[in-house]
Amino acid sequence: DLEEDTKDEL
Amino acid sequence: MNVFRLVGDLSHLLAIIILLLKIWKTRSCAGVSGKSQILFSLVFITRYLDLFTNFISVYNSVMKIIYLVTSLGTVYLMYFKFKATYDSNHDTFRIEFLVVPVGGLSFLVNHDFTPLEILWTFSIYLESVAILPQLFMISKTGEAETITSHYLFALGSYRALYIVNWVYRYYTEGFFDLIAIVAGCVQTILYCDFFYLYITKVLKGKQLKLPA
């Protein structure tokens, strides 16, 4: 889901 | 993390280091577009605002800091230290024609209407077109130094590898981010004719000359 959409890419 | 993204990040880092070394060693930024370097710095600044608030991993934080420092360092070298060698006559792409539409689009098409998310979206869209001043400059001069073409090849390869990473993540994690994917495809497509010239010419030891 969008909530835990942590941006883990550079 | 997967091998495609890791190699992509290392290719990106390699590109940045190649350019920095080229300018530092030759003490010249001839043939390099300062406008593209400004846009890349803007991409990193708007994308990494969460550097201190959102810890992902040591690798993630270290790479973000390296990208920020090296891109700003390159801009400093071009516009201050080696300003005399900056070829402003050929670096004439109007970057406001990129920043304004990209800024507008990031307000219209994003995942979440919050400042951090809009700035991240702006950075993704901007990165996809940030190389245009550099490609435009090469088309105007009609040629590029071999070291500059290696820089462009590494830089173009990084986002192409990210596309493979996104395909891989879609099939293994079901993860996909359409904004990043579409912008990444546009970005990689912009390099296609350069990739063709690089593979058919530079790898055969010839100078990269664009058909005038």
TrEMBL record, chain B:
A GO MF label: ER retention sequence binding
Specify the protein's topology with respect to the membrane.
Answer: Multi-pass membrane protein
On the tree of life, the source organism's domain of life is Eukaryota
What PROSITE patterns does the record tag this protein with?
ER_LUMEN_RECEPTOR_1, ER_LUMEN_RECEPTOR_2
Q: Transmembrane helix as a keyword?
A: yes
Q: Where does this chain mainly localize?
A: membrane
Compartments where found: Cytoplasmic vesicle, COPI-coated vesicle membrane; Endoplasmic reticulum membrane
Instruction: Name one process (GO BP) from the record.
Output: protein retention in ER lumen
Q: Taxonomic lineage per UniProt? A: Eukaryota, Metazoa, Chordata, Cephalochordata, Leptocardii
What Pfam families does this protein's entry cite? ER_lumen_recept
| Statement: the UniProt record of this protein carries the keyword DNA damage | no
Residue ranges spanning the membrane: these are 65-82, 94-113, 119-138, 174-199
What is the protein named?
A: ER lumen protein-retaining receptor
